[in-house]
Amino acid sequence: MNQSEPCLRNEPSEPCLRNEPSLHDNGKIQQAERLKYGSQAEIQPDQAQVRIDLNADMGESFGAWTMGQDEALMPLISSANIACGFHAGDPSTIRATVKLAAKHGVAIGAHPGLPDLQGFGRRTMSLSPDEAYELMLYQAGAVRAFAEAAGARLHHVKAHGALYNMAAKDVGLSRAMAQAVKDLGDQVQMYVLAGSVMEREARDAGLDVRCEVFADRRYMPDGTLTPRSRSDALITDESESVAHVLRMVKEGHLIAVDGSRVDVVADSLCIHGDKATAVPFVKALRIALKQANVEVRAH
Protein backbone atom coordinates (compact mmCIF):
# COMPACT_ATOMS: atom_id res chain seq x y z
CA MET A 1 0.00 0.00 0.00
CA ASN A 2 1.32 3.44 -0.94
CA GLN A 3 1.98 5.46 2.23
CA SER A 4 0.44 8.54 0.62
CA GLU A 5 -2.87 6.83 -0.05
CA PRO A 6 -5.72 6.69 2.49
CA CYS A 7 -6.25 3.39 4.25
CA LEU A 8 -9.19 1.66 2.63
CA ARG A 9 -11.41 -0.74 4.52
CA ASN A 10 -12.58 -3.81 2.54
CA GLU A 11 -9.08 -4.67 1.30
CA PRO A 12 -8.91 -8.23 2.61
CA SER A 13 -5.17 -8.63 2.33
CA GLU A 14 -4.19 -5.37 4.00
CA PRO A 15 -4.74 -4.27 7.61
CA CYS A 16 -6.24 -0.82 8.00
CA LEU A 17 -3.41 0.60 10.05
CA ARG A 18 -0.16 2.40 9.38
CA ASN A 19 2.41 4.00 11.61
CA GLU A 20 4.14 7.26 10.82
CA PRO A 21 6.88 8.98 12.89
CA SER A 22 5.76 12.14 14.63
CA LEU A 23 7.67 15.43 14.58
CA HIS A 24 6.26 16.41 17.97
CA ASP A 25 6.20 14.88 21.40
CA ASN A 26 3.01 13.52 22.90
CA GLY A 27 2.44 16.45 25.24
CA LYS A 28 2.56 19.01 22.44
CA ILE A 29 0.20 16.93 20.35
CA GLN A 30 -2.37 16.61 23.15
CA GLN A 31 -2.22 20.37 23.72
CA ALA A 32 -2.73 21.00 20.01
CA GLU A 33 -5.72 18.66 19.96
CA ARG A 34 -7.47 20.62 22.70
CA LEU A 35 -6.78 23.87 20.86
CA LYS A 36 -8.08 22.36 17.62
CA TYR A 37 -11.29 20.82 18.91
CA GLY A 38 -11.98 23.02 21.94
CA SER A 39 -15.03 22.22 24.05
CA GLN A 40 -17.88 20.15 22.69
CA ALA A 41 -19.91 23.33 22.16
CA GLU A 42 -17.27 24.79 19.86
CA ILE A 43 -17.00 21.87 17.46
CA GLN A 44 -18.08 22.87 13.98
CA PRO A 45 -19.90 20.35 11.76
CA ASP A 46 -18.24 19.22 8.55
CA GLN A 47 -20.06 18.96 5.24
CA ALA A 48 -19.73 15.19 4.75
CA GLN A 49 -21.52 13.02 7.28
CA VAL A 50 -19.62 10.13 8.82
CA ARG A 51 -21.17 7.08 10.47
CA ILE A 52 -19.93 5.36 13.62
CA ASP A 53 -21.28 2.54 15.73
CA LEU A 54 -21.11 3.01 19.52
CA ASN A 55 -20.66 -0.31 21.29
CA ALA A 56 -20.43 -1.08 24.99
CA ASP A 57 -19.70 -4.18 27.03
CA MET A 58 -22.90 -5.10 28.85
CA GLY A 59 -24.45 -7.87 30.94
CA GLU A 60 -21.41 -8.16 33.20
CA SER A 61 -23.32 -8.66 36.45
CA PHE A 62 -23.17 -12.09 38.04
CA GLY A 63 -25.58 -13.58 40.59
CA ALA A 64 -26.11 -11.04 43.37
CA TRP A 65 -23.17 -8.91 42.16
CA THR A 66 -24.05 -5.92 39.98
CA MET A 67 -21.62 -4.33 37.54
CA GLY A 68 -22.14 -1.52 35.07
CA GLN A 69 -25.04 0.82 34.33
CA ASP A 70 -26.84 -1.15 31.64
CA GLU A 71 -30.29 0.43 32.09
CA ALA A 72 -28.95 3.97 31.74
CA LEU A 73 -26.35 3.25 29.07
CA MET A 74 -28.35 1.06 26.69
CA PRO A 75 -30.45 3.92 25.16
CA LEU A 76 -27.23 5.81 24.33
CA ILE A 77 -25.42 3.13 22.31
CA SER A 78 -26.08 1.38 19.01
CA SER A 79 -24.65 -2.10 19.72
CA ALA A 80 -24.14 -4.14 22.89
CA ASN A 81 -21.48 -6.76 23.58
CA ILE A 82 -23.11 -9.14 26.05
CA ALA A 83 -20.96 -11.18 28.42
CA CYS A 84 -21.54 -14.90 27.98
CA GLY A 85 -20.89 -16.32 31.46
CA PHE A 86 -17.19 -17.17 31.28
CA HIS A 87 -15.56 -13.90 32.37
CA ALA A 88 -18.80 -12.31 33.60
CA GLY A 89 -22.55 -12.71 33.32
CA ASP A 90 -24.86 -15.64 33.86
CA PRO A 91 -27.95 -17.03 32.09
CA SER A 92 -30.39 -14.70 33.86
CA THR A 93 -28.22 -11.67 33.11
CA ILE A 94 -27.80 -12.66 29.47
CA ARG A 95 -31.54 -13.01 29.05
CA ALA A 96 -32.30 -9.68 30.76
CA THR A 97 -29.61 -7.82 28.80
CA VAL A 98 -30.77 -9.24 25.47
CA LYS A 99 -34.34 -8.14 26.23
CA LEU A 100 -33.11 -4.68 27.22
CA ALA A 101 -31.13 -4.33 23.99
CA ALA A 102 -34.11 -5.48 21.91
CA LYS A 103 -36.35 -2.97 23.68
CA HIS A 104 -34.08 -0.09 22.68
CA GLY A 105 -33.35 -1.33 19.16
CA VAL A 106 -29.70 -1.94 19.98
CA ALA A 107 -27.77 -4.52 17.93
CA ILE A 108 -27.09 -7.65 19.99
CA GLY A 109 -23.55 -8.99 20.16
CA ALA A 110 -21.85 -11.84 22.01
CA HIS A 111 -18.81 -10.97 24.12
CA PRO A 112 -17.00 -14.29 24.74
CA GLY A 113 -14.03 -14.31 27.08
CA LEU A 114 -11.60 -16.60 28.84
CA PRO A 115 -12.97 -18.80 31.66
CA ASP A 116 -11.76 -16.48 34.41
CA LEU A 117 -14.49 -14.95 36.57
CA GLN A 118 -12.13 -13.85 39.32
CA GLY A 119 -9.79 -12.10 36.90
CA PHE A 120 -12.66 -10.74 34.78
CA GLY A 121 -11.13 -12.36 31.71
CA ARG A 122 -8.24 -9.91 31.70
CA ARG A 123 -5.50 -12.40 32.61
CA THR A 124 -3.78 -14.21 29.76
CA MET A 125 -3.69 -18.00 29.67
CA SER A 126 -2.30 -20.63 27.36
CA LEU A 127 -4.91 -21.55 24.77
CA SER A 128 -4.82 -23.75 21.69
CA PRO A 129 -6.60 -22.71 18.48
CA ASP A 130 -9.12 -25.52 18.99
CA GLU A 131 -9.88 -24.28 22.49
CA ALA A 132 -10.28 -20.72 21.20
CA TYR A 133 -12.71 -21.94 18.52
CA GLU A 134 -14.77 -23.85 21.09
CA LEU A 135 -14.87 -20.94 23.54
CA MET A 136 -16.10 -18.58 20.84
CA LEU A 137 -18.71 -20.89 19.36
CA TYR A 138 -20.06 -22.08 22.73
CA GLN A 139 -20.48 -18.63 24.23
CA ALA A 140 -21.77 -16.88 21.11
CA GLY A 141 -24.23 -19.71 20.60
CA ALA A 142 -25.72 -19.07 24.03
CA VAL A 143 -26.31 -15.37 23.32
CA ARG A 144 -27.75 -16.19 19.91
CA ALA A 145 -30.26 -18.59 21.52
CA PHE A 146 -31.44 -15.90 23.94
CA ALA A 147 -31.63 -13.36 21.12
CA GLU A 148 -33.77 -15.63 18.97
CA ALA A 149 -36.01 -16.39 21.95
CA ALA A 150 -36.56 -12.63 22.30
CA GLY A 151 -37.48 -12.29 18.62
CA ALA A 152 -34.14 -10.73 17.70
CA ARG A 153 -30.91 -11.97 16.12
CA LEU A 154 -27.22 -12.14 16.91
CA HIS A 155 -25.63 -9.19 15.11
CA HIS A 156 -21.94 -9.57 15.95
CA VAL A 157 -19.27 -11.25 18.06
CA LYS A 158 -16.49 -9.40 19.86
CA ALA A 159 -13.93 -11.20 22.01
CA HIS A 160 -13.29 -9.84 25.49
CA GLY A 161 -10.23 -8.71 27.38
CA ALA A 162 -7.19 -10.96 27.28
CA LEU A 163 -8.71 -13.19 24.59
CA TYR A 164 -9.17 -10.12 22.36
CA ASN A 165 -5.62 -8.90 22.98
CA MET A 166 -4.07 -12.34 22.52
CA ALA A 167 -5.85 -12.88 19.21
CA ALA A 168 -4.83 -9.41 17.99
CA LYS A 169 -1.26 -10.71 17.64
CA ASP A 170 -1.70 -14.49 17.23
CA VAL A 171 -2.46 -15.92 13.78
CA GLY A 172 -3.57 -19.33 15.04
CA LEU A 173 -5.99 -17.97 17.63
CA SER A 174 -7.38 -15.34 15.26
CA ARG A 175 -7.92 -17.86 12.48
CA ALA A 176 -9.74 -20.25 14.80
CA MET A 177 -11.90 -17.52 16.29
CA ALA A 178 -12.82 -16.18 12.85
CA GLN A 179 -13.81 -19.69 11.79
CA ALA A 180 -16.07 -19.95 14.83
CA VAL A 181 -17.88 -16.75 13.85
CA LYS A 182 -18.13 -17.96 10.27
CA ASP A 183 -19.65 -21.25 11.44
CA LEU A 184 -22.36 -19.34 13.28
CA GLY A 185 -23.66 -18.36 9.84
CA ASP A 186 -26.45 -15.81 9.38
CA GLN A 187 -23.96 -13.10 8.32
CA VAL A 188 -22.84 -12.49 11.90
CA GLN A 189 -20.27 -9.68 11.99
CA MET A 190 -16.94 -9.83 13.80
CA TYR A 191 -15.64 -6.82 15.70
CA VAL A 192 -11.83 -6.68 15.68
CA LEU A 193 -9.01 -4.38 16.72
CA ALA A 194 -8.31 -2.15 13.72
CA GLY A 195 -5.12 -3.10 11.89
CA SER A 196 -4.52 -6.26 13.89
CA VAL A 197 -3.75 -9.85 12.91
CA MET A 198 -7.32 -10.56 13.95
CA GLU A 199 -8.64 -8.15 11.34
CA ARG A 200 -6.59 -9.80 8.59
CA GLU A 201 -7.67 -13.32 9.52
CA ALA A 202 -11.33 -12.32 9.79
CA ARG A 203 -11.21 -10.76 6.33
CA ASP A 204 -9.43 -13.79 4.90
CA ALA A 205 -12.26 -15.93 6.31
CA GLY A 206 -14.74 -13.84 4.31
CA LEU A 207 -16.45 -12.33 7.34
CA ASP A 208 -18.24 -9.01 7.57
CA VAL A 209 -15.58 -7.22 9.63
CA ARG A 210 -15.91 -4.07 11.73
CA CYS A 211 -12.74 -2.30 12.82
CA GLU A 212 -12.98 -1.19 16.43
CA VAL A 213 -11.33 1.70 18.24
CA PHE A 214 -11.50 2.69 21.90
CA ALA A 215 -12.60 6.01 23.37
CA ASP A 216 -10.73 5.70 26.66
CA ARG A 217 -7.64 3.70 25.75
CA ARG A 218 -4.20 4.79 24.62
CA TYR A 219 -2.36 2.92 21.89
CA MET A 220 1.12 1.56 21.34
CA PRO A 221 3.09 2.55 18.18
CA ASP A 222 2.16 -0.79 16.55
CA GLY A 223 -1.57 -0.01 16.93
CA THR A 224 -2.21 -2.40 19.84
CA LEU A 225 -3.79 -1.21 23.07
CA THR A 226 -1.47 0.03 25.79
CA PRO A 227 -1.39 -2.67 28.51
CA ARG A 228 -3.57 -1.91 31.51
CA SER A 229 -0.55 -2.57 33.70
CA ARG A 230 0.85 0.79 32.54
CA SER A 231 -0.19 3.98 34.31
CA ASP A 232 -0.92 5.72 31.01
CA ALA A 233 -3.15 2.97 29.59
CA LEU A 234 -6.43 4.85 30.16
CA ILE A 235 -7.56 8.29 29.05
CA THR A 236 -9.37 9.79 32.04
CA ASP A 237 -9.79 13.38 30.86
CA GLU A 238 -13.10 13.87 29.04
CA SER A 239 -11.90 16.57 26.64
CA GLU A 240 -8.84 14.55 25.71
CA SER A 241 -10.99 11.48 25.09
CA VAL A 242 -13.43 13.41 22.88
CA ALA A 243 -10.52 14.83 20.86
CA HIS A 244 -9.07 11.31 20.57
CA VAL A 245 -12.40 9.98 19.27
CA LEU A 246 -12.96 12.77 16.75
CA ARG A 247 -9.45 12.37 15.38
CA MET A 248 -9.97 8.64 14.81
CA VAL A 249 -13.49 8.98 13.40
CA LYS A 250 -13.11 12.16 11.32
CA GLU A 251 -9.41 12.16 10.42
CA GLY A 252 -8.62 8.44 10.36
CA HIS A 253 -5.64 8.39 12.68
CA LEU A 254 -4.63 8.31 16.33
CA ILE A 255 -1.61 9.43 18.33
CA ALA A 256 0.32 6.62 20.05
CA VAL A 257 1.92 6.91 23.48
CA ASP A 258 5.28 7.80 21.95
CA GLY A 259 3.75 10.64 19.94
CA SER A 260 3.78 8.82 16.61
CA ARG A 261 0.83 8.91 14.24
CA VAL A 262 -1.01 5.67 13.46
CA ASP A 263 -3.58 5.65 10.66
CA VAL A 264 -6.69 3.67 11.49
CA VAL A 265 -10.20 2.91 10.22
CA ALA A 266 -12.96 3.35 12.81
CA ASP A 267 -16.18 1.44 12.15
CA SER A 268 -17.15 0.98 15.79
CA LEU A 269 -16.21 2.88 18.92
CA CYS A 270 -16.04 1.01 22.23
CA ILE A 271 -17.32 2.67 25.40
CA HIS A 272 -16.51 0.98 28.70
CA GLY A 273 -19.69 1.06 30.76
CA ASP A 274 -18.23 -0.15 34.04
CA LYS A 275 -16.90 3.30 35.03
CA ALA A 276 -18.94 5.65 37.23
CA THR A 277 -18.55 8.42 34.64
CA ALA A 278 -19.67 6.30 31.68
CA VAL A 279 -23.18 7.69 31.24
CA PRO A 280 -22.33 11.43 31.40
CA PHE A 281 -19.31 10.81 29.18
CA VAL A 282 -21.36 9.07 26.49
CA LYS A 283 -23.94 11.85 26.60
CA ALA A 284 -21.20 14.46 26.12
CA LEU A 285 -19.61 12.35 23.39
CA ARG A 286 -22.87 12.05 21.49
CA ILE A 287 -23.28 15.83 21.56
CA ALA A 288 -19.75 16.21 20.19
CA LEU A 289 -20.37 13.62 17.47
CA LYS A 290 -23.63 15.25 16.42
CA GLN A 291 -21.97 18.66 16.20
CA ALA A 292 -19.20 17.11 14.10
CA ASN A 293 -21.86 15.67 11.76
CA VAL A 294 -21.22 12.06 12.78
CA GLU A 295 -24.20 9.70 12.71
CA VAL A 296 -24.39 7.06 15.45
CA ARG A 297 -25.78 3.79 14.07
CA ALA A 298 -24.82 0.13 13.95
CA HIS A 299 -23.59 -1.20 10.60
* CATH topology value: TIM Barrel
What is the domain total for the residues?
1
Q: What is the molecular shape? A: globular
Q: List segments where confidence is low: pLDDT < 50 over at least 5 consecutive residues.
A: 1-15, 17-46
Radius of gyration, taken over Cα atoms and rounded to an integer in Å: 18 Å
Mean pLDDT over the full residue set = 87
Strand order of the largest sheet: 2-3-4-5-6-7-10
Largest sheet: 7 strands, parallel, barrel
Terminus-to-terminus distance: 26 Å
Number-wise, the strands total 11
Q: Spell the H/E element sequence.
A: EHEHEHEHEHHEHEHEEEHE
Name given to the CATH architecture: Alpha-Beta Barrel
Number of helices: 9
CATH superfamily: Glycoside hydrolase/deacetylase
Describe this structure in words.
By secondary structure, the chain is an alpha/beta fold. It has one domain: Alpha-Beta Barrel (TIM Barrel). Helix content is 36%, strand content 17%. The protein contains nine helices and eleven strands. A seven-stranded parallel β-barrel has the order 2-3-4-5-6-7-10, surrounded by four helices. It has a three-stranded antiparallel beta sheet with strand order 1-9-8. Strand 4, helix 4 and strand 5 form a beta-alpha-beta unit.
